[in-house]
Amino acid sequence: MGARLARMFRNFNVENRALREISREKPRTAPRHETEAPPSAVSSEAAESVKKKDESLLEHLRSVYVESTDPAAATEATEDVAVGKEAERRPLRVTFPGHRFGLPELHDVPKGKLTIAEALKALGSHQHQPRTWTAEKIAQEYSLDLKDTTSVVEFFIPFKVEIIPPKTRTAKQIKAS
Q: Could you give the CA distance from residue 108 to residue 115 in angstroms, rounded to a whole number?
């Protein structure tokens, strides 16, 4: 009933309203602002000012002293640091059984990094035993930065499934398979 009533009000006097909207005067565009000089005159003035030498600016330029270093030497130094960091690796502590999830078999991990399995294990152990698995212990165990580990432990919670039993025996129950 409500749809029929809404349709009646929507279709009431449609032709007259459409004709009134079509015959209404269209809005006019805003007039363009007139410029004082034609574009060619402005560009010639700008070209003249660019070509003219300003003595005060030249004096400031002469007073500037620039020292530069060879960029190739700087990149070699950063590559040496990157190679040194790549060499620092630690053995893997936790793995998924088999090749589940399509992940390759890993044997070692760079220091300061975690695998998914290690992260879930560390967060889960902290969740179950927060007094023994503190952020400091997790950082030391997995060679992580303490500040990052504290943030991860504070803000990330591993997925946890809880099955709440029904209040009555007649309710449907999920059976473990």
A: 10
Give the closest residue to 127 by CA, choosing from 95, 94, 160: 160
Residue closest to 92 by CA, chosen among 113, 67, 123, 72? 113
User: Tokens standing for 51?
Assistant: 């070509």
In sequence order, what are the beta bridge partners of 91?
108
- pLDDT tens digit at each of 177 positions of the chain: 678 888 887 888 888 888 888 888 888 888 888 767 666 666 777 788 888 888 888 898 889 888 888 877 667 666 655 555 555 887 776 665 655 555 566 678 888 888 888 888 899 899 889 999 999 999 999 889 999 999 999 998 877 767 777 677 666 666 665
Give the DSSP per-residue string, 138-149.
HHHHHT--HHHH
Which residues 6+ apart lie within 8 Å of 106 measured at CB?
A: 92, 95, 115
With beta carbons less than 8 A apart as the criterion, state whether 155 and 134 touch: no
* Per-position b or e across 48-59, b if 16+ CB within 10 A of its CB: eeeeeeeeeeee
DSSP label of 6 = H
Q: Which of 110, 119, 176, 111 is nearest to 143 (CA)?
A: 111
